[in-house]
Structure formats: C-alpha cells, structure tokens
Design brief:
Layout (H helix, E strand, L loop, with lengths): L3 H15 L1 H24 L2 H16 L1 H16 L3 H31 L1 H16 L2 H12 L3 H25 L3 H9 L4 H30 L1 H5 L6 H10 L3 H31 L1
Length: 274
C-alpha cells in the first residue's frame, strides 16, 4: 500500500516551515493588490459604476446587453448586495490579471516549444480536473484565511484556459504568414508581437473570457475560507437553510457573470472583425 497523502503532507509541512517569509510576502503583495482594487470599486459611487459598465457593455456587445447590464446592476443594488458584488468583482479581476500574467507567457512558450508543451499538458490537466476544494487545503496552510488564499485557489483553477488557448491561437497562425514574415527579415520578437499575437488575439480573448468565468465560479468555494463577497451570501443561505437568501446571492452571481461574459466576448468579436 502506497501512502501518497503522507508524502504530500510532509512536503506541504516542509514548505510551510521553510518558506514562511516567502508566503508572507505573497500574502502582503496579493492582499494589497486585491484591497486596492476593492477600495477603488467601493469608493466609486454605485450609479457611476452602473453607468460606466452599461456604456461599455452597450459599446462592445450592443443595445440588448447594455439594457440587461443597467437593470441587472440596479437589481443587485436594490437587493442590498452592492458591496459584496464589488468585493467579488475585485477578487475576480485581481485573480484574472495574475492568471494572465502567469498564463500568457506560458502559452507563448508552449506554442513555440514542443518540450514545454509536453510538460505543461499533464500539469494543466491536473489543475483543471483536481476538485477545487483540494486547492483550499494548501492555500489555507500557506496563507491563512481571507481573500488571498481565495485568490490563490482561484488562480490555480482559472489559469489553464488562457494557457491552452494562447498556445492554440499562436499554433493556428498560418505557416505561410510566418514564413513570409521571416523572409522579410522579422526578428523572433517582431514575429511574435506584430504577427502571431495580433492574429491569435480572438482565440486569446476567448481564453481570457473563460478565465474570468472560471474565476467567478470559484466565489462560493472561496467563501468557505472567508474570502467574502457574493459567495459568502450563498454560503450563508446553504448553511443556515435560508433558501431565499441563497437564491438572491446566486442571482447576483449570474448577473455579474453574464455581464462580464458579454463584455469580454465583445472585445473578442471586435478583434476578430479587425
């Protein structure tokens, strides 16, 4: 009988004991980043946020999405969940930005290196198929309770789509375009930034869209380790058997998910049209 869990536990304990300063620095850095995002969103009056998001949704995705955005956000405000929604939005956007900082370079590297692609593929499979609850265990041990371990678990869960779709987008750039660019003397950097990335941008935007939605899908799970936001409302509804409260929190999550999904899809369609 092989007790794999015992060795994983030993490894986590060793990391906790020997890298305390490193995890403290991550806690402070990511915590400050999320708090800054949250403070800005809280500082802006709700009606200005609603107007800005409505105009963005209207411009990127059309009149129907714009109307849905204004009524959806007004519904969230009227239910009294505005602060929780801004907390969730701050966590989702912060996690997405960090996931993109990690995922985009890995996707580019994977597209240009078969060895990297072979190594990353099973790791990404593991990150996507491992139950999300499992990520909370090392997150709490390394970083304690709060928004930072929630963001840590969210980043692990949400990074694979942008890595995969960035790699796929670059690989799908026509070879004759790449060869023509090289024949005209383009350097690898010029080839990447002026040819491959622009042509792969619609696919990359799809990856960003999926990363945002997967980050949002983690809000309820992250609430179990005191990440706050709309997930906490849904969790209260579950634990206290308050069906109405749980549904209200769920409706707010759905509204936010649809708005973010349509806006990011609008960016992707615009890039594809160009």
């Amino acid at each position: 009988m092989i007790n794999i869990g015992k060795y994983i536990e030993m490894a986590i304990n060793w990391l906790t004991e020997n890298f305390t300063l490193f995890f403290d620095a991550i806690n402070v850095g990511i915590g400050g980043f999320i708090d800054g995002f949250q403070n800005v969103l809280m500082w802006i009056p709700f009606y200005i946020t609603i107007v800005l998001l409505t105009l963005l949704a209207w411009y990127k995705s059309g009149k129907g999405v714009g109307v849905f955005t204004v009524f959806g956000l007004l519904l969230i405000w009227s239910m009294g969940f505005w602060n929780e929604t801004m907390q969730t939005l701050a966590l989702v956007l912060s996690s997405t930005i960090i996931a993109l900082i990690i995922g985009l370079p890995l996707g580019i590297w994977s597209a240009n290196s078969q060895r990297c692609d072979k190594i990353l593929h099973p790791i990404l499979d593991l990150m996507q198929t491992m139950p999300a609850f499992v990520y909370l265990i090392p997150a709490v041990l390394f970083l304690g309770l709060g928004t930072v371990p929630g963001a840590f678990a969210t980043i692990i869960f949400a990074t694979p789509p942008v890595v995969r779709l960035t790699s796929l987008g670059i690989k799908q750039v026509p070879k004759n375009v790449v060869e023509a660019s090289r024949s005209f003397g383009a350097t690898p950097t010029q080839l990447l930034f002026k040819v491959q990335l622009p042509l792969a941008l619609p696919t990359i935007m799809t990856g960003i869209n999926q990363t945002i939605l997967m980050s949002l899908s983690m809000v309820v799970i992250a609430a179990m380790i005191a990440a706050g936001g709309l997930g906490e409302i849904v969790l209260k509804g579950i634990t206290q058997m308050k069906i109405g409260l749980g549904f209200e929190g769920g409706i707010a999550v759905v509204i936010l998910a649809i708005i973010l999904d349509r806006i990011t899809q609008g960016f992707g369609k615009q890039k594809k049209g160009k």
